[in-house]
Amino acid sequence: MRRFEDRIVMITGAAHGIGLGIAERLAGEGAAVAVADVDAAAGERAAVRLAAGGTQAVAVTCDVTSGESVAAAVAAVVARFGRLDVLVNNAGGGLNLPDLDELTDDDWHRQIDVTLMGVVRCVRAATPHLTRSPHGGNVVTVGSINGLAPFGSVAYSAAKAGLRNLTENLASRCAADGVRFNLVAPGTIRTRAWDDQPDSLDRIASTIPLGRIGRPDDIAAAVAFLASGDAAWITGVTLPVDGGALLNAGRVFRDSAARTR
Ligand SMILES: NC(=O)c1ccc[n+]([C@@H]2O[C@H](COP(=O)([O-])OP(=O)(O)OC[C@H]3O[C@@H](n4cnc5c(N)ncnc54)[C@H](O)[C@@H]3O)[C@@H](O)[C@H]2O)c1
Protein backbone atom coordinates (compact mmCIF):
# COMPACT_ATOMS: atom_id res chain seq x y z
CA MET A 1 0.00 0.00 0.00
CA ARG A 2 1.28 3.49 -0.90
CA ARG A 3 -1.52 5.57 0.67
CA PHE A 4 0.80 8.48 1.52
CA GLU A 5 2.39 9.22 -1.85
CA ASP A 6 2.66 13.00 -2.20
CA ARG A 7 1.69 13.50 1.47
CA ILE A 8 3.69 15.67 3.87
CA VAL A 9 3.45 14.33 7.42
CA MET A 10 4.74 15.87 10.66
CA ILE A 11 5.01 13.49 13.63
CA THR A 12 5.82 14.80 17.11
CA GLY A 13 7.88 12.56 19.36
CA ALA A 14 9.02 10.55 16.34
CA ALA A 15 12.60 10.05 17.54
CA HIS A 16 11.69 7.05 19.70
CA GLY A 17 9.10 4.40 20.41
CA ILE A 18 5.59 4.67 19.02
CA GLY A 19 6.32 7.88 17.12
CA LEU A 20 9.28 6.30 15.37
CA GLY A 21 7.09 3.31 14.48
CA ILE A 22 4.51 5.67 12.98
CA ALA A 23 7.23 7.47 11.01
CA GLU A 24 8.53 4.17 9.60
CA ARG A 25 5.03 3.00 8.65
CA LEU A 26 3.98 6.22 6.90
CA ALA A 27 7.36 6.51 5.19
CA GLY A 28 6.93 2.93 3.98
CA GLU A 29 3.65 4.01 2.41
CA GLY A 30 5.28 6.88 0.54
CA ALA A 31 5.01 9.87 2.89
CA ALA A 32 7.57 12.64 3.20
CA VAL A 33 8.17 12.73 6.95
CA ALA A 34 9.15 15.44 9.42
CA VAL A 35 10.51 13.95 12.63
CA ALA A 36 9.61 16.60 15.24
CA ASP A 37 11.16 15.91 18.62
CA VAL A 38 12.69 17.65 21.61
CA ASP A 39 15.51 15.08 21.44
CA ALA A 40 17.25 16.71 18.48
CA ALA A 41 20.09 14.19 18.18
CA ALA A 42 17.79 11.16 18.15
CA GLY A 43 15.44 12.96 15.75
CA GLU A 44 18.32 13.57 13.38
CA ARG A 45 19.34 9.90 13.57
CA ALA A 46 15.78 8.81 12.81
CA ALA A 47 15.52 11.16 9.83
CA VAL A 48 18.87 9.98 8.45
CA ARG A 49 17.73 6.36 8.75
CA LEU A 50 14.42 7.10 7.00
CA ALA A 51 16.25 8.97 4.23
CA ALA A 52 18.61 6.03 3.76
CA GLY A 53 15.53 3.94 2.97
CA GLY A 54 14.52 6.37 0.22
CA THR A 55 12.12 8.58 2.20
CA GLN A 56 12.15 12.35 2.01
CA ALA A 57 12.76 12.98 5.69
CA VAL A 58 13.76 15.93 7.82
CA ALA A 59 14.34 16.36 11.54
CA VAL A 60 12.96 19.47 13.21
CA THR A 61 13.61 20.30 16.84
CA CYS A 62 10.29 20.73 18.56
CA ASP A 63 9.36 21.07 22.23
CA VAL A 64 5.58 20.80 22.46
CA THR A 65 5.63 22.65 25.79
CA SER A 66 6.69 25.84 23.97
CA GLY A 67 4.42 27.66 21.54
CA GLU A 68 7.42 29.33 19.90
CA SER A 69 9.20 26.04 19.39
CA VAL A 70 6.10 24.41 17.88
CA ALA A 71 5.44 27.37 15.56
CA ALA A 72 9.06 27.34 14.39
CA ALA A 73 8.93 23.58 13.77
CA VAL A 74 5.75 23.78 11.69
CA ALA A 75 7.19 26.72 9.75
CA ALA A 76 10.37 24.73 9.08
CA VAL A 77 8.38 21.77 7.74
CA VAL A 78 6.32 24.00 5.45
CA ALA A 79 9.49 25.81 4.29
CA ARG A 80 11.12 22.45 3.48
CA PHE A 81 8.21 20.67 1.79
CA GLY A 82 5.90 23.49 0.69
CA ARG A 83 2.86 22.40 2.69
CA LEU A 84 1.57 20.07 5.42
CA ASP A 85 -1.07 17.38 4.90
CA VAL A 86 -1.04 15.33 8.12
CA LEU A 87 -0.13 16.10 11.73
CA VAL A 88 0.42 13.23 14.16
CA ASN A 89 0.45 14.34 17.81
CA ASN A 90 2.40 11.68 19.66
CA ALA A 91 5.01 13.46 21.81
CA GLY A 92 5.12 13.00 25.53
CA GLY A 93 4.21 10.26 27.96
CA GLY A 94 3.71 9.75 31.67
CA LEU A 95 5.99 11.91 33.85
CA ASN A 96 6.57 9.34 36.58
CA LEU A 97 4.61 11.33 39.14
CA PRO A 98 3.61 10.28 42.67
CA ASP A 99 0.18 8.94 43.55
CA LEU A 100 -2.89 11.18 43.91
CA ASP A 101 -2.41 12.29 47.52
CA GLU A 102 1.12 13.54 46.89
CA LEU A 103 0.57 15.25 43.55
CA THR A 104 1.33 18.98 43.68
CA ASP A 105 -0.25 21.67 41.52
CA ASP A 106 3.05 21.86 39.67
CA ASP A 107 2.93 18.11 38.92
CA TRP A 108 -0.57 18.51 37.47
CA HIS A 109 0.44 21.54 35.41
CA ARG A 110 3.54 19.84 33.99
CA GLN A 111 1.61 16.74 32.93
CA ILE A 112 -1.26 18.69 31.41
CA ASP A 113 1.21 21.03 29.70
CA VAL A 114 2.95 18.29 27.72
CA THR A 115 0.00 15.96 27.15
CA LEU A 116 -2.97 18.24 26.52
CA MET A 117 -1.56 21.71 25.87
CA GLY A 118 1.19 20.21 23.70
CA VAL A 119 -1.48 18.98 21.31
CA VAL A 120 -3.31 22.32 21.46
CA ARG A 121 -0.09 24.13 20.47
CA CYS A 122 0.61 21.79 17.55
CA VAL A 123 -2.96 21.96 16.27
CA ARG A 124 -2.97 25.75 16.52
CA ALA A 125 0.21 26.02 14.45
CA ALA A 126 -0.64 23.30 11.91
CA THR A 127 -4.34 23.82 11.18
CA PRO A 128 -3.95 26.87 8.90
CA HIS A 129 -1.70 24.71 6.71
CA LEU A 130 -3.90 21.61 6.93
CA THR A 131 -6.90 23.57 5.61
CA ARG A 132 -4.86 24.26 2.46
CA SER A 133 -3.90 20.63 1.84
CA PRO A 134 -5.01 19.54 -1.64
CA HIS A 135 -5.73 16.10 -0.18
CA GLY A 136 -7.85 17.29 2.75
CA GLY A 137 -5.69 17.69 5.83
CA ASN A 138 -6.06 15.63 8.96
CA VAL A 139 -4.77 15.19 12.48
CA VAL A 140 -4.28 11.93 14.37
CA THR A 141 -3.49 12.23 18.06
CA VAL A 142 -2.05 9.47 20.23
CA GLY A 143 -4.05 9.31 23.46
CA SER A 144 -4.20 6.34 25.80
CA ILE A 145 -6.72 3.88 27.14
CA ASN A 146 -5.91 5.65 30.44
CA GLY A 147 -8.02 8.48 29.11
CA LEU A 148 -10.97 6.15 28.61
CA ALA A 149 -11.14 4.11 31.84
CA PRO A 150 -9.80 4.28 35.42
CA PHE A 151 -6.39 2.61 35.13
CA GLY A 152 -4.67 4.99 37.60
CA SER A 153 -1.98 7.68 36.95
CA VAL A 154 -4.59 10.35 37.52
CA ALA A 155 -2.82 13.43 36.10
CA TYR A 156 -1.68 11.61 32.94
CA SER A 157 -5.08 9.97 32.55
CA ALA A 158 -7.05 13.20 33.03
CA ALA A 159 -4.86 14.93 30.44
CA LYS A 160 -5.33 12.03 27.99
CA ALA A 161 -9.09 12.10 28.66
CA GLY A 162 -9.09 15.77 27.65
CA LEU A 163 -7.71 14.78 24.25
CA ARG A 164 -10.90 12.90 23.43
CA ASN A 165 -13.13 15.91 23.99
CA LEU A 166 -10.63 18.17 22.23
CA THR A 167 -10.59 15.83 19.23
CA GLU A 168 -14.38 15.77 19.04
CA ASN A 169 -14.71 19.56 19.28
CA LEU A 170 -11.99 20.16 16.70
CA ALA A 171 -13.52 17.55 14.38
CA SER A 172 -16.88 19.23 14.62
CA ARG A 173 -15.52 22.73 14.18
CA CYS A 174 -13.14 22.01 11.32
CA ALA A 175 -15.22 19.56 9.27
CA ALA A 176 -16.49 22.35 7.02
CA ASP A 177 -12.86 23.19 6.21
CA GLY A 178 -12.27 19.57 5.21
CA VAL A 179 -9.88 18.85 8.09
CA ARG A 180 -10.42 15.61 10.04
CA PHE A 181 -9.37 14.95 13.66
CA ASN A 182 -9.17 11.46 15.16
CA LEU A 183 -7.68 9.85 18.28
CA VAL A 184 -5.88 6.53 18.67
CA ALA A 185 -5.86 5.21 22.25
CA PRO A 186 -3.04 2.68 22.80
CA GLY A 187 -2.98 0.09 25.51
CA THR A 188 0.36 -1.06 26.89
CA ILE A 189 3.06 -0.82 24.20
CA ARG A 190 6.60 -2.06 24.62
CA THR A 191 8.79 1.06 24.37
CA ARG A 192 11.65 2.48 26.41
CA ALA A 193 9.00 4.01 28.71
CA TRP A 194 8.69 0.52 30.23
CA ASP A 195 12.41 -0.34 30.34
CA ASP A 196 12.58 -0.09 34.12
CA GLN A 197 9.48 -2.24 34.69
CA PRO A 198 9.94 -5.60 32.91
CA ASP A 199 8.01 -7.42 35.64
CA SER A 200 5.03 -5.12 35.20
CA LEU A 201 5.02 -5.84 31.48
CA ASP A 202 4.95 -9.58 32.11
CA ARG A 203 2.07 -9.20 34.57
CA ILE A 204 0.10 -6.92 32.25
CA ALA A 205 0.67 -9.25 29.29
CA SER A 206 -1.00 -12.07 31.19
CA THR A 207 -4.16 -9.94 31.59
CA ILE A 208 -4.52 -8.79 28.00
CA PRO A 209 -7.29 -10.70 26.20
CA LEU A 210 -5.27 -10.96 22.97
CA GLY A 211 -2.37 -12.36 24.95
CA ARG A 212 0.56 -10.01 24.42
CA ILE A 213 1.93 -6.53 25.01
CA GLY A 214 1.51 -4.19 22.04
CA ARG A 215 4.21 -3.07 19.63
CA PRO A 216 4.72 0.38 18.07
CA ASP A 217 3.68 -1.06 14.70
CA ASP A 218 0.27 -2.02 16.17
CA ILE A 219 -0.33 1.68 16.82
CA ALA A 220 1.28 2.76 13.56
CA ALA A 221 -1.17 0.61 11.56
CA ALA A 222 -4.15 2.32 13.21
CA VAL A 223 -2.66 5.79 12.76
CA ALA A 224 -1.94 5.03 9.11
CA PHE A 225 -5.54 3.99 8.54
CA LEU A 226 -7.05 7.08 10.19
CA ALA A 227 -4.60 9.45 8.47
CA SER A 228 -5.17 7.90 5.04
CA GLY A 229 -7.81 8.39 2.40
CA ASP A 230 -9.34 5.09 3.54
CA ALA A 231 -10.73 7.08 6.49
CA ALA A 232 -11.86 10.05 4.38
CA TRP A 233 -15.37 9.88 5.90
CA ILE A 234 -14.24 9.34 9.50
CA THR A 235 -13.76 12.21 11.90
CA GLY A 236 -14.04 12.73 15.65
CA VAL A 237 -13.58 9.06 16.57
CA THR A 238 -11.49 7.41 19.27
CA LEU A 239 -9.97 4.08 18.26
CA PRO A 240 -8.61 1.96 21.14
CA VAL A 241 -5.70 -0.29 20.07
CA ASP A 242 -5.13 -2.34 23.20
CA GLY A 243 -5.38 -6.09 22.64
CA GLY A 244 -8.76 -5.95 24.36
CA ALA A 245 -7.44 -4.41 27.60
CA LEU A 246 -10.44 -2.09 27.90
CA LEU A 247 -12.59 -5.18 28.32
CA ASN A 248 -10.91 -5.45 31.75
CA ALA A 249 -11.30 -1.76 32.59
CA GLY A 250 -11.09 -0.86 36.24
CA ARG A 251 -10.78 -4.46 37.36
CA VAL A 252 -7.55 -6.27 36.54
CA PHE A 253 -5.33 -3.20 36.36
CA ARG A 254 -6.64 -1.21 39.29
CA ASP A 255 -3.78 -1.89 41.65
CA SER A 256 -1.19 -2.89 39.12
CA ALA A 257 1.86 -1.15 37.78
CA ALA A 258 -0.30 0.30 35.02
CA ARG A 259 -0.85 3.12 37.56
CA THR A 260 2.43 4.54 36.37
CA ARG A 261 1.38 4.83 32.76
N1 LIG B 1 4.16 2.96 25.69
C1 LIG B 1 2.93 2.83 26.16
O1 LIG B 1 2.59 1.84 26.85
C2 LIG B 1 1.88 3.88 25.85
C3 LIG B 1 0.55 3.59 26.12
C4 LIG B 1 -0.43 4.53 25.83
C5 LIG B 1 -0.08 5.73 25.25
N2 LIG B 1 1.22 5.99 24.99
C6 LIG B 1 1.52 7.31 24.39
O2 LIG B 1 2.30 7.13 23.22
C7 LIG B 1 3.12 8.28 23.01
C8 LIG B 1 4.56 7.85 22.78
O3 LIG B 1 5.02 7.15 23.93
P1 LIG B 1 6.24 6.10 23.87
O4 LIG B 1 5.87 4.97 24.75
O5 LIG B 1 6.61 5.84 22.44
O6 LIG B 1 7.37 6.93 24.62
P2 LIG B 1 8.90 7.24 24.20
O7 LIG B 1 9.49 7.85 25.42
O8 LIG B 1 9.55 6.06 23.60
O9 LIG B 1 8.75 8.34 23.08
C9 LIG B 1 8.25 9.64 23.37
C10 LIG B 1 8.86 10.62 22.40
O10 LIG B 1 8.33 11.92 22.71
C11 LIG B 1 9.43 12.85 22.76
N3 LIG B 1 9.06 13.96 23.64
C12 LIG B 1 8.92 13.95 24.99
N4 LIG B 1 8.60 15.17 25.43
C13 LIG B 1 8.55 15.98 24.35
C14 LIG B 1 8.28 17.36 24.15
N5 LIG B 1 8.03 18.18 25.18
N6 LIG B 1 8.29 17.85 22.89
C15 LIG B 1 8.57 17.04 21.84
N7 LIG B 1 8.86 15.73 21.96
C16 LIG B 1 8.83 15.21 23.20
C17 LIG B 1 10.60 12.03 23.28
O11 LIG B 1 11.85 12.64 22.99
C18 LIG B 1 10.38 10.72 22.52
O12 LIG B 1 10.96 10.74 21.24
C19 LIG B 1 2.91 9.17 24.25
O13 LIG B 1 1.94 10.16 23.94
C20 LIG B 1 2.36 8.20 25.28
O14 LIG B 1 1.58 8.86 26.26
C21 LIG B 1 2.22 5.10 25.27
Q: What are the key terms here?
A:
single chain; 261 residues; alpha/beta; Rossmann fold; 7 helices; binds nicotinamide-adenine-dinucleotide
Outline:
The chain is 41% helix and 14% strand.
Question: How would you describe the overall organization of this protein?
Answer:
- The protein is an alpha/beta fold and 261 residues long.
- The chain has one domain: 3-Layer(aba) Sandwich (Rossmann fold), CATH 3.40.50.720.
- It has seven helices and seven strands, in the order βαβαβαβαβαβααβ.
- Strands 3-2-1-4-5-6-7 form a seven-stranded parallel sheet, with helices on both faces.
- α4 runs parallel beside α5.
- The radius of gyration is 17 Å and the shape is globular.
- The structure holds nicotinamide-adenine-dinucleotide.
Number of domains: 1
Report the C-alpha radius of gyration, rounded: 17 Å
CATH topology: the name is Rossmann fold
Assign an overall shape.
Answer: globular
SS elements, strand count: 7
Uncertain segments: none
Question: Which sheet architecture does the biggest sheet show?
Answer: 7 strands, parallel
- Overall CATH architecture: 3-Layer(aba) Sandwich
CATH top level label: Alpha Beta
Beginning-to-end CA distance, first to last residue:
33 Å
Count of separate DSSP helical elements: 7
Average predicted confidence as pLDDT: 95
- Structural class based on helices, strands and sheet pairing: alpha/beta
Percentage of β-strand residues = 5-15%
Lateral arrangement of strands in the main beta sheet: 3-2-1-4-5-6-7
Following the backbone from N to C, one meets helices and strands in this order, namely: EHEHEHEHEHEHHE
Write the CATH homologous superfamily: NAD(P)-binding Rossmann-like Domain
Query: Any ligands, ions or cofactors bound here, and which?
Result: nicotinamide-adenine-dinucleotide
**Percent range of helical residues:** 40-55%
Organism: Spongiactinospora rosea
Domain Ketoreductase: 7-192
Family: Belongs to the short-chain dehydrogenases/reductases (SDR) family.
GO molecular function: oxidoreductase activity, acting on the CH-OH group of donors, NAD or NADP as acceptor
